[in-house]
Amino acid sequence: MITSRRDGGSLVALAVAGLLVLAGCGGGQGAAPAPPAGTPAAAAAPIGDPGLARRLAEQVTGDAAFARMEELQRIADANGGNRASGQPGYDASVEYVAGELRRAGFTVETPSFPFDTFAVDAETLVVGGTPGPAVTALTYSPATAAGGVTAPLVVAPDAPGDPTPGCEAGDYANLPARGAVVLVRRGSCTFTQKQQVAADVGAAAVLVGNNAPGPLGGTLGSVAEGRLPTGGLLQADFDALLPRAGTPATLTLATRAATVVTRNVIAQTTTGRPDEVVMSGAHLDSVPEGPGINDNGSGSSAQLELAMRLGGAPPVTNAVRFAWWGAEEVGLLGSTAYVRGLTPEARRDIAVLLNSDMLGSPNPAYLVYDGDDSDRQGAPPGPGGSDGIERTLAAALSATGAQPRGTDFDGRSDYGPFIEAGIPAGGLFTGAEELKTPEEAALWGGQAGVAYDRCYHQACDTTANIDRVALDRMLDTLAVGVGTYATDLGGPNGVPTREQRQTR
């Protein structure tokens, strides 16, 4: 039984009350602003329930969210062990989430978008008749013919200080590149460009060597851009092949790539101003390697539990829109397609984006996205209003008994397209593959020197991989964030009004 949420319930309630005062309920931007021309009369001046955030924080439970994660686990178990976009497990996840939301009275859509899939069945290299070093097919690499490509190795020039080896056709001047397996060093141009240049000069395949220790992985961009079978090599393995130029080599890359269609789930309340939307998003897909229960069944289930408690017609000032994104694991594709598909006016309608990605890591951190860049790490501040979102979430998380820390807007989750569009954003995160530091273990408990999530992107990311105390705390915090801004967008932790927002 989880007791931390109820033990901290009074603290949560007090913190919510304080947040509502700071937000200026009843007298701030959300009280009764003049709507822009064309706003439906029914949405002109709704007044939200000032106790909404407190009520939501009291009603949502980690146990209920965990039960929804168990349903996602059952879906994965019945569909090949994963819920990856383009696979049956993802489609079943969409139907489950959309069905629950319709039952709760939301207006629900499941807009579709195309994306590229990629899988590797075999990747081998034989040099001079003997097995060569390990090779990794780059994403969207075309497959070789059955039996592989057999051709001499040809080395693209790699002059000291040249940052662009193999990036221009002139690099292959006077080289027998036609029909060859080309060896080219990684540099400043993209892998896509390297293999396209090699294709233009008639090469049969490309092997890209890393220019630093560690494995080389990457992408050719898309199915359409992949023209030659292309693999990556470790730096040491690449260097060992250079003296063997002219030796026949056989490269086998058994890959499968296709363009398929998948869906997002978008649900909006029927109440609240539709031109001042509070949006909450979480990606629904897993990686193909596992069921993705922490990444991101935790964020998806927490958000679904919150939506069901809120209901489709709550007493809100500002409409609430929930999104479950597809194809996040292959490049934030669902959220990107959504934002790009909005008109400029529809982008301005979104006042806030809250992102929930991995809320139950087993060795958890308690992280809030650094909207004001006060940590001076990585990316610059988010769009105006992101600083207030950070403060709102940090205060709510503190009230659960956790001490929050900032985390960089590093572009690894679905807030990315919203920030690029100029939409204020924030969110919650309990950590992925990075190791917990001794200082963090002293602050939060858990094991120093161990990943926040040891099952990140693995088959073991099941319901057994969840810290239910962390899930409970993060769900309470999300409830406060959504409830606060659905009631009022103003006050010291507020965000710009629609008229003030400068979206791109």
Offer a concise description of the structure.
With about 500 residues, this protein is an alpha/beta fold.
- The percentage helix is 25-40%
The CATH superfamily of the largest domain is identified as Zn peptidases
Number of domains: 2
Hey, roughly how much beta strand do the residues contain?
15-25%
Going by CATH, the architecture of the largest domain would be 3-Layer(aba) Sandwich
CATH class assignment of the largest domain: Alpha Beta
Q: Find the CATH topology of the largest domain.
A: Aminopeptidase
Unreliable residue stretches: 1-45
Q: What can you see in these coordinates?
A:
- With about 500 residues, the protein is of the alpha/beta class.
- It folds into two domains: about 5-25 and about 45-110 and about 265-485, Zn peptidases (Aminopeptidase), CATH 3.40.630; about 115-260, Glucose Oxidase, domain 1.
- The protein is built from 14 helices and 16 strands.
- The strands form two sheets. An eight-stranded mixed β-sheet has the order 1-10-12-11-13-16-14-15. An eight-stranded mixed β-sheet has the order 3-2-9-5-6-7-8-4, with helices on both faces.
- β6 (about 180-185), α6 and β7 (about 205-210) form a beta-alpha-beta unit.
